[in-house]
């Protein structure tokens, strides 16, 4: 038992509103100007950035994938994203107007560290988002943006995922302000929307018992497929990673539109399809993909902002989550998926904090 919780993972899930609030706090001054932590890149240099490349592993990669949508939408800058261990070996095209962003909770993951140092050596500007003050990557990169999630003990990342997305959203708004791709009033409005997310996460957390009741009904199934579009896609990947990491259940994340290009062949009565469908432009599209898997016998679970009247079958299950700005929705939508993985792990008599074969920090290639 840890501080009233059965394990570190459930404690860290509970700490998520605070983790995000602390990460956002103090980053915006009275005039609405955003400030970053250790920024040894001048504003003039940042204004000339033509391309952003994001690298990371596992959950940190998924946070980077979420940020790509905000950077492209708010800053109108092309964004590439790659797994650190692939980026290193691919002869990437970098220049002094490229900003390479490494995302790493520990700041010690070797693959991400080498990716960043090679990017730096090739003349690109480097920035790291890290949860550990003075970590190797924080010392090496040109700029650091700290998440303030506090120490994360559980091997499965939860509160640092949400904090990483929060920090990267701040970076996107900072660049948008600097490059004037958004009006100051728009930046302010978005900061207000971002500041509302911790409370939305608290509301999601108040539904834990309900999420666990759904998780309990899913215990007998063989395989899980998580699907989403746009920012829902990295949430799908993260939901699948959490579940496989701490429950060893075969689970995959797919862009919902890809189903019919192969994965749908796997769907039968033993498969669960968890669809991330926040309100927004692609809501109906995701629900149309859900129809396709339901017709093939899958057990359907929807992550939605309200009951989708007319789009449900009687044995569908629902994870209700509060609605926030669509680009910020992964920070809320991931919560029931974390709870699903945690509940399943405990129900199967496993230790969610110490999954087999895994280390918290991977400092080898
Ligand atoms: O410390 P880092 O953020 O660089 O670690 C990256 C991954 O090893 C990490 O996110 C891993 O995927 C977690 N166990 C996921 O829960």
From TrEMBL:
GO annotation terms (biological process): carbohydrate metabolic process; fructose 6-phosphate metabolic process; protein N-linked glycosylation; UDP-N-acetylglucosamine metabolic process
A GO molecular-function descriptor: carbohydrate derivative binding
Substrates-to-products reaction catalysed: D-fructose 6-phosphate + L-glutamine = D-glucosamine 6-phosphate + L-glutamate
GO cellular component: cytosol
Localisation: Cytoplasm
Catalytic residues (UniProt): 360
Class of the enzyme per the UniProt entry, highest EC level: transferase
Main subcellular location of this protein, as a coarse class: cytoplasm
Keyword Transferase carried by entry: yes
EC number(s) from the headed UniProt entry: 2.6.1.16
Top-level lineage group: Bacteria
Swiss-Prot/TrEMBL keywords: Aminotransferase, Cytoplasm, Glutamine amidotransferase, Repeat, Transferase
Domain SIS stretches: 42-181, 214-355
Subunit structure: Homodimer.
Functional note: Catalyzes the first step in hexosamine metabolism, converting fructose-6P into glucosamine-6P using glutamine as a nitrogen source.
Identification of the protein by name: Glutamine--fructose-6-phosphate aminotransferase [isomerizing]
Species whose genome carries this gene: Ferrithrix thermotolerans DSM 19514
Residues of the full protein shown: 247 to 611 of 611
């Amino acid at each position: 038992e840890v501080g009233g919780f059965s394990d570190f993972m459930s404690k860290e899930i509970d700490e998520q509103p605070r983790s995000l609030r602390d990460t956002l706090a103090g980053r915006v001054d009275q005039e609405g100007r955003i400030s970053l932590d250790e920024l040894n890149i001048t504003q003039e240099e940042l204004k000339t950035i033509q391309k952003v490349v994001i690298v990371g592993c596992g959950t940190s990669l998924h946070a980077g994938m979420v940020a790509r949508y905000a950077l492209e939408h708010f800053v109108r800058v092309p964004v590439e994203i790659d797994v650190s261990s692939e980026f290193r070996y691919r002869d990437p095209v970098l220049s002094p107007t490229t900003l390479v962003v490494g995302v790493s909770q520990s700041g010690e993951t070797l693959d991400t560290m080498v990716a960043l140092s090679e990017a730096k050596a090739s003349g690109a500007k480097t920035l790291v988002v890290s949860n550990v003050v003075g970590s190797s990557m924080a010392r090496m990169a040109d700029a650091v943006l700290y998440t303030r999630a506090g120490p994360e003990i559980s091997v499965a990342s939860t509160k640092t995922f949400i904090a990483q997305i929060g920090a990267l959203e701040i970076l996107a708004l900072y660049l948008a302000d600097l490059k004037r791709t958004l009006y100051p009033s728009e930046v302010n409005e978005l900061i207000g929307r971002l500041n509302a997310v911790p409370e939305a996460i608290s509301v999601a957390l108040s539904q834990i018992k309900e999420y666990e009741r759904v998780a309990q009904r899913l215990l007998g199934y063989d395989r899980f497929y998580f699907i989403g579009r746009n920012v829902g896609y990295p949430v799908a990947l993260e939901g699948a990673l959490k579940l496989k990491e701490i429950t060893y259940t075969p689970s995959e994340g797919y862009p919902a539109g890809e189903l019919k290009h192969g994965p749908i062949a796997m769907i039968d009565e033993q498969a669960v399809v968890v669809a991330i469908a926040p309100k927004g432009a692609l809501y109906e599209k995701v629900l149309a993909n859900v129809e396709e898997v339901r017709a093939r016998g899958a057990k359907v679970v929807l992550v939605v902002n309200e009951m989708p009247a007319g789009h449900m079958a009687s044995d569908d299950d629902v994870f209700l989550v509060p609605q926030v700005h669509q680009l910020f929705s992964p920070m809320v939508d991931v919560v029931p998926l974390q709870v699903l993985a945690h509940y399943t792990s405990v129900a199967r008599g496993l230790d969610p904090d110490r999954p087999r074969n895994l280390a918290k920090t991977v400092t080898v290639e």
